[in-house]
Amino acid sequence: MAGFQTDESLLRNIDAEIKQLGRTNIIVVGRTGVGKSTLINAVFKEDVATTGTGSPVTKNIQKYAIPGTSVTLFDSRGLEMKEFKKIMEEVCSFIKRCQKNKDINEHIHIAWMCISHTSNRLEEGEIAFVEMISKYIPVVIVITQSYDEDNTLFNIIQQKFQDPKVIPVVAKEKSIRKGYPPIPSTGLPSLVKTTQELLPAAQQIAFLAAQNADFSAKILKAHGIVGASAIAAAAAGAIPIPFSDMAVLVPIEIGMIISITAVFGFEIERSVILALWGIFATASGASIVGLGLASLLKFIPGVGSVAGGIIDAAVATSITTAFGEAYIGILVVLFKENNGAKPTKDQLLAKCKQEWKTKQDS
Ligand SMILES: Nc1nc2c(ncn2[C@@H]2O[C@H](COP(=O)(O)OP(=O)(O)OP(=O)(O)O)[C@@H](O)[C@H]2O)c(=O)[nH]1
Ligand SMILES: [Mg+2]
């Protein structure tokens, strides 16, 4: 039957979209004591690198899966100057090995090369290291412990490498003197933004979801997801279709819900997506099966003029945009009410239900 979305095909849509969510692997390298662990903990707001149970993947590389996320960190610990060459070769052959995997989710996607601001110079080993790993993966050079504005190291790095991505950071606020305010944390949002830009598209959501240094980066990405979904919806509506065939939009809306929910850091499970779909796409009283999406029309100004009519590219775009932006709005309010902390799945569902009811009643 036209426009009829069976439970089974809905589940297939959901599973297919979940499968598309990628994993992100980051390798963090640098000399002992430069602040690698401090940086990791600050970006992900998890005590991963110190107390996390890392598992050794090679003699000098530890692996840390960040709990509840799709990000894995590889921390090359104890990079001593005298052993630089050996460790560098170990890291490079590890990266080469990973890149041979057919599954992109098993690749190493980016390296954060940490160099301490306090050293004020580049060691030969550090130069060789950056040159070597950038043959395989994008490298961001992080100047850790950038407690003052001295640009010496920044300028040396800029001159040394072609098109380097250099981000000075203070990962954790630093008290210098008693009675004076501490030096605040800086640079982490830039590191998040630069990293995201260098990641393959399929890896960006996992990274943005896991990081907790820049909430606005998640919101920005969510808007981008809505934009991309709206374009897909326009294509689906390129040949105008009757309202009863709205099912062509279902996979697009499902994909959008999944990506947005993921980017805000929620673990994606079929049951949660199904519950969200039940809230959003089902007109009050109707079952999930059958023509969902009817309640989405609530979001479109002048809905009366399109109801019962046809869906064309413009209507498909407005439904998708209005729906996606409304969902982002709910998420932003929910995080705010939770003082920035990630709400539970139950809180998410309850909030969506409440907001949707308000919309339906209005
Ligand atoms: N306040 C403050 N301290 C920092 C920062 N970065 C590093 N430190 C301090 O520098 C010391 C070394 O930092 P770690 O993060 O353990 O360095 P690491 O690179 O992980 O060291 P290894 O694991 O031994 O290779 C610790 O005492 C940190 O507290 C920072 O951004 N702020
Ligand atoms: Mg460490």
Distance between the termini: 32 Å
Total number of strands: 9
The helix-strand sequence is: HEHHEEEHEHEHEHHHEHHHEHH
| CATH homologous superfamily placement of the largest domain | P-loop containing nucleotide triphosphate hydrolases
GO molecular function, one term: GTP binding
Keywords: Membrane, Transmembrane, Transmembrane helix
Transmembrane segments: 222-241, 247-266, 273-297, 309-335
InterPro entries: GTP-bd, P-loop_NTPase
Can you offer a commentary on this structure?
Keywords: Membrane, Transmembrane, Transmembrane helix. This is G domain-containing protein. InterPro entries: GTP-bd, P-loop_NTPase. GO terms for molecular function: GTP binding. There is one protein chain. With about 350 residues, the protein is of the alpha/beta class. The chain folds into two domains: about 180 residues, P-loop containing nucleotide triphosphate hydrolases (Rossmann fold, 3-Layer(aba) Sandwich), CATH 3.40.50.300; about 150 residues, no CATH class. About 50% of the residues lie in helices and about 10% in strands. The strands form two sheets. It has a seven-stranded mixed beta sheet with strand order 2-3-4-1-5-6-7, sandwiched between helices. Helix 9 runs antiparallel to helix 10 and helix 10 runs parallel beside helix 13. The two termini are about 30 Å apart. Guanosine-5'-triphosphate binds next to helix 2.
How do the strands and helices of this protein lay out in sequence?
Layout (H helix, E strand, L loop, with lengths): L6 H13 L4 E7 L5 H9 L3 H4 L3 E2 L4 E5 L5 E6 L7 H16 L10 E7 L7 H10 L5 E6 L7 H9 L4 E4 L19 H11 L2 H10 L4 H22 L4 E2 L7 H14 L6 H11 L22 H4 L3 E2 L1 H25 L7 H17 L1
Parallel strand pairs: 1-4, 1-5, 5-6, 6-7
Antiparallel strand pairs: 2-3, 3-4, 8-9
Helix pairs in contact: 1-10, 4-5, 9-10, 9-13, 10-13, 11-14, 13-14
Bound molecules: guanosine-5'-triphosphate and magnesium ion.
